[in-house]
Amino acid sequence: MLSSPRQALCSRLQLQVWRRNLTARGFAVPSWATVDPEKMSGAAPAVAMNLCGGEWSSSKMTQDIVDPLNGEVFMKVPNTGMDEIEPFVKRMASVPRSGLHNAMKKPERYVMLGEVCSASAREMHKPEVSEFFTRLIQRVAPKSAAQAGGEIKAVRTWLEDYSGNNVRMLAESQGLPGDHVGQTTVGYRFPYGGVAVVTPFNFPLEICSLQTMSAIFMGNQCTTKVDWRVAIVMEQFIRMLHAVGLPKTDMDFIYCDGPVFNEILVQGNSRMTLFTGSQRVADKLAVDLKGKVKLEDAGFDWKILGPDVFDEDYVAWQSDQDAYGFAGQKCSAQSMLFVHENWSQPETDIVKKISDRAGQRNLENLTNCPVLSWTTEGLLEHTEKCLKIPGSSLAFGGKALAGHKIPSQYGAIEPTAVRVPVDALLDEDSFKVATTEIFGPFQVIVDYKEGQLPQVLEAINRMPNHLTAGIVSNDPRFVNEVIGNSITGTTYAGARARTTGAPVQHWFGPSGDPRAGGIHTKHAIQLCWSSHREVIYDVGPVPPKVPPQS
């Protein structure tokens, strides 16, 4: 609710400035695009479509999607019902178990997909295409230009990585000599067949595009579902892929709610499903699909500031980025910061430095932005719960934003941190509250003293998820102690340690769970989207005398 006419005017002016900045360079919408980020509005909502069997179509019902900045219905997307899923189910169920291609079947598709990656990367290098995707991401999941542009750069770089022969190299085999002449054994990577990708709202392009293409690389036919609030970005990416040569039948794409897609996966017997999202849904899918899942599930991510103090301004900058970039709406966001007492001395006071940086974030440049999975009331209620932990205090924030038109189903608060002593985490109830994942601009700062590292290690290993972590220290013994006694899948260590912003050249994914999936690398793609198949060739000659029966 706007608190004054002056604030209402300020909000309108901020939105106008933001939109003028987006259009200042005057780029045209790409020829393959079906939406214009600048014209999506209550007066002219964008219209989205499903893709099944190479054909774009709508559904009987549509779902209204509201603009996160002003509450207008600016998109109408298909709301595919249970009575409309049969084509998707049949497509998924009918994919050969040997896939669309493999090392022995249609290997020319490896070459074709490498060419698609090369052409897609070239397309995304065009300024108007890069700007189109950046603007579209900002409309559906408002984030700063740097955050939105980072997705474009990551996807483009990854497509360049898999151009040429690199898709073919994902299917590289391993051979071994046999026991006699004519015998060799070869290990191949084989696809699963009909598979699925399910991704959330926070990265409207990067996660869904990379995982879908990874599935196709390995020979699978993929059905992809993205949170329908942002799925129009992936739809436009698919249309771009078609324009540069991807066969339209290589994948299906659907707008629907969770229960509907769950039914498609079960009835279609999805051979492998990559899920990125909440732990609750991940656990349900693991049961419903009989374990045929890979998970990049929820991330309550920690960072530890070790006893050696250095580069305080940089460390504060990185901590602010990790906790509050895109208002903390990342599975890799810094959720808990363990601060050694040396960082809290008056001459250092790292928490004040973080607070000063966080306080500069604002809606005008989208360095702070709407929270799409929590309401303002919910965020503030959780803050109050944390402040009931013995010894806790409000480090900074804890207030709702004013002077905006963000709809009530979304959250809008200042970057917030609650400070607690490490001893408080020994209490199970306090620990449960403090380690609740909040997909928003909120973190818990935990103070610990020299000699209390064992309590810190005990706390990080009690956490249910182990996606990303940072160890800010250049003391090799300290770093080794933490790494050797923790299991987080993607861990950054050293003076520049972070939790967010994983580049596409390294693995990103959780650890400590046999269901853990990953993204980006050759290993991640092979692990998620193919299985090992051993073929033993034994062509003779046979021995001159038939061996005795045994």
Topology readout:
Layout: H1 5-23, E1 46-47, E2 50-52, E3 55-57, E4 62-66, E5 73-78, H2 86-93, H3 108-125, H4 127-140, H5 145-161, H6 166-169, E6 174-177, E7 183-190, E8 194-199, H7 206-217, E9 221-226, H8 231-243, E10 251-254, H9 258-267, E11 273-276, H10 279-288, E12 293-296, E13 301-305, H11 312-324, E14 334-340, H12 350-358, H13 376-386, E15 393-396, E16 416-421, H14 428-434, E17 442-448, H15 453-462, E18 468-472, H16 476-484, E19 490-493, H17 522-529, E20 531-538
Key phrases:
disordered N terminus; alpha/beta; single chain; 550 residues
Folded structure, characterized:
The protein has helices at about 5-25, 85-95, 110-125, 125-140, 145-160, 165-170, 205-215, 230-245, 260-265, 280-290, 310-325, 350-360, 375-385, 430-435, 455-460, 475-485, 520-530; strands spanning about 45, 50, 55, 60-65, 75-80, 175, 185-190, 195-200, 220-225, 250-255, 275, 295, 300-305, 335-340, 395, 415-420, 440-450, 470, 490-495, 530-540. The protein has about 550 residues and is of the alpha/beta class. The strands form five sheets. A seven-stranded mixed sheet has the order 15-16-17-14-13-18-19, sandwiched between helices. The longest helix is centred in the first third of the chain and has 19 residues, at about 5-25. The protein starts with a helix and ends in a 12-residue tail after the last strand.
